[in-house]
Records
---
Amino acid sequence: MHVWYGAGEAGGYREDLALLGREEKLRGARIARDDERSWFIAARAGTRRALAEHLRVGPERIGLHWDPASDFRAALLTVGPGARPLAVATVHHARRWLLALAPDGPLALSMAAAGELPRAADRLRADARRVAAARARHLAGAAFVVRDLPAHGPAAVALARPAGTGTVHCHGLVLATFVAPPACRPHDGTRQGGDGTRQGG
């Protein structure tokens, strides 16, 4: 499975909005604060571009069917008639966003940032794991496990994925003003492959 780390860039609002599906546009329109609405739209457009590059199709061909229980955080991906749907999860915090792609679900992501009150890194990681697990429980599917992933800037990251899934490949998207982690490194004792990716568990 794959996880992308990305960040929204200012100035592309119209181009980003054009990539979103009707449901995503309606969800964005319900966000009251201008900055939060912009980051939501930028995050969803960024995930579509990452998926399009990975699958070697145009971003307009990325069809996401959102799970109504996920508040636009989990979807099935289709790229054409007869293609097997893939599980997608996404989450954002301010300008930072994450995307996960796997053959099967449940799949859920979480980011936990300190906010105004500083919190220890282990507390942030525990909060991220708790939220990822809660989100996965709302989704129909097989049993899941929750694992820490590398932090995204100041935010702790956790991923809930089907039990028995193998290596997680992380992709860092390099932008003009932002460089994300290029590889997954375990925080919880799972075995690490020679290429820096997580294996097992």
---
Amino acid sequence: MAHKKSSDKYQKSCEIIYDMLSSRIKERKIQLKLRNKDICPSADVNLISAIIHNRRNEKKNKYLIPNGVKGTYISENTTPFIDVIAKNLKFNSTVEMLRGSYEELESYAGHFFFQLVKEALVDEDEETKEILTSILSDYIPYAIAFTYNKLLDKHGQIASFVFNENFLSYIDEYDILETQAIARVYINMNDEFESLLDEFFTNQPDTLKLNRRLSTFMTEKVMPTMEKTRHKAACIDDVKQRFLSTCEKSIYYFNYELMLSPEAIGYHENDTSYYEREYMDEWLKAEHDYISRLESVQKEIEGPPNTDILNAPRDTSNPS
């Protein structure tokens, strides 16, 4: 499968930033009773309108607010266009205009984290996805659901014959369990993520090449922090890989017995294959029971993760 270009990644995460930024500018314009031309006298008023309404054009404002001071975006003192807007709208800084107040950042950080992780699981390379699913699989219900999903993709309906009735329930609840797994990770690192997000806006206070920057932010900042903070909570290393291996063996032996006739299988008590299969059956059952017990213990100790922390903040502004 071809990898996405950096410029095509994290579209929804970018949209969250663009939407909040344009709303922030619109609300401040209304509060100050400004006209579009007051926001940046040297700019085309249609461009200011596009920014306020989050309309982006590939040539004029691909990343919502054009970068630099060239052409019609130059001011008398060559202040960058984005800084002129922030100053005329009386924000304390360009950073504040981009990310909102720190209190506002705290209100949307969980939702933004959720969207970043969801898109990384689709947009990034296979190695990155594997690391992410390994971290999320510290939440055992997700590890089970992920494994069943993978087996269904690989083996089709035969997987549903091999496993018990819980198989379909995990498949049906996959999205819910994935959200709970993401919430569990975020709860362990929310303070760290808020600091990282603040640094993201502070270190480069503009929207230039936002997609690429979010990809770098995710792989070089967020994921190492996820790894570092995962050990603050109870987790079982490699539970996903262990369960996947067990399930693959279950399917293998199911297929093996289907291919052989009763005579070939050899149910005679003196046939060593009989004892080997009996041993394997008991071992596989014990492995499945072990994973189920881990899931029960984790639920008893931790309870279900609170997914409300990932919700989008309620819009309390009412610009007219």
---
Amino acid sequence: MCRSRAEGGRRCPGGHTSSRDAQTARQRLCRARRALEATEATGDAQAIAAAHQRVADAQEGVTAARILAGADQPDPPNAAGLYRAERQALSAYTGGESASINQFVQNGYQVPDHLADDRDYVRLMRQQVAALKRAVNRSKLTTQTKAAQAVPAAVAEQIYGPVGSGVGQTVTQDRFVSLTVDHAPSEVFGDVFIYWHLPVGTRALDVNASGVPCKRDERELLLGPHQPFLKARDELIDGRRVIHMEGVLPPATPRPRGQRAAGRAANI
């Protein structure tokens, strides 16, 4: 059964990983198998073939989740707390695959049409993005941090609009974003400078402390996609466009009354 526990359901069988991604993948496989059974009863050959394909895709998702969760082989984290799949994904991102990874995220977690039939590539992209997101989401800043970024003017206008527009509004990045700390932004990457003011608790991975080979002459932070930021300032300074972004932390979710009572009892 693939309903949530709140709806009276139970966990789908198969696999022994317990991460949310793994559970979601198993539930998707359960639904695909049930849909295949229903479709086979219709006798529609074309629909049955499509249902078989959905089952195969769902099974790939389960396999990817098992690998990421370390279900099939020992996978101790390194000193920075990153597991093998996360280290490999971060190494790929910093090693030249950032554009492909971000294209996958920005395209709704889909590969370009000309690569859609390459099942190995599709699986690789799913694994890399899932591992990167997991690594970033577990990494939270413990001190208030100011970071910087330089982007081409055309990119800045595409993401943030014309100069001075949207100030005071929330912007959500639909990609991974690489920032530099303790260094001024470099004009090599673009003529628009963006300064990021990141509060304590912001999800940001310190690449230099990750144990993955990287540029040691700069401290790089990696922000994950879909984090909200407030556009605080956007102006021209001596002919250069300068944007200031401020991190917006989601409000704390209060625990249900029963959980609070259990927590107090445990502390007695």
